[in-house]
Automatic annotation (TrEMBL):
SUPFAM superfamilies: ACT-like (SSF55021), P-loop containing nucleoside triphosphate hydrolases (SSF52540). Pfam families: ABC_tran (PF00005), NIL (PF09383). Belongs to the ABC transporter superfamily. This is Methionine import ATP-binding protein MetN. The keyword Membrane applies. CDD domains: ABC_MetN_methionine_transporter (cd03258). One of its GO terms (cellular component) is plasma membrane. The keyword Glycosyltransferase does not apply. GO terms for molecular function: ATP binding; ATP hydrolysis activity. One of its GO terms (biological process) is amino acid transport.
Amino acid sequence: MALISLTNVSKTYPPAERGGERVIAIDDVTLDIEKGDVYGIIGYSGAGKSTLVRLINALERTTSGAIRIDGRDMTALPERDVRRIRLGIGMIFQQFNLFNSKTVFNNIAYPLRVAGADKKTIASRVDELLSFVGLTDKARNYPEQLSGGQKQRVGIARALAASPSILLADEATSALDPETTSEVLALLKRVNTEFGITIVVITHEMDVIQTLATKVAVMDAGRIVERGDVFEVFSNPQQASSKRFVSTVVQGVPSRDEVLTLRQRHRGRIVTFSFRDGDVSQSVVFAELARANVGFEIVYGGINDIQGQVFGHLTLALSGAATNQEEALTNIRSHITVTEAGL
């Protein structure tokens, strides 16, 4: 049984003005998230990602459909039971949402006080979390005295305070610079691996999914248009919106316009070789070209690493006798996908 299960979930809002059309934010979404997953939900602004995460922790109610957390239907429970389940769901935000009037210690302690924990338990747990996020020396500081990355570390510690089984991260790195983003993503990975916490990551940043997530769902206009293992979706996206996202971090097969530009800059036959983990390596392809006495120059593309799995596309300008090129390409096609530019 999935830890988080959405079945035919929809969320609509009333028209913004009289006579207008109702707004469909979530449109018949069905999704299962297993215990231990780091599940990325990606999509452009307005795709419905943030609405979906608010439905998961019942900050908003569905218009139709069911959401089950560990088998319990959040859409059918009274508010007092929902609040109890919500204690097991931590949340971190883009803008940190810290209490500016409270110290770092008291920000982290807040969920524990709400849950009725005693002072000794609170002190022990906060000290443990400050050590985990690397902010032991900041306990008495206030949020305004912290950098953005430090604020998000406090946000993560606060979200972990009540020992949740689920952590929801809504654009948690969007306000951070690249170096700090890498540090926060490494910390979230530790949250998952060391504590076994299931993480749902809402983001429009493909690099976040590439680095952190194990599975991914692509949202567009309130619907999930593609889902699956991160490597599979990145290396072979099927839907147009998925392909647009993947292109932000992966240079794929060049478009016709890009081919025209390449032909203006490079002589030779323009051919793209596509590699996936388990295929022959680039060195084998290059060796085959050299064996056939075919010259080559890399003119487009790149190879990507998704958590230890490699894929990518390399476009080469080939030179040499046409018969030699055909011989080499025939041999290479038996191992990997070869795309003739413009065809």
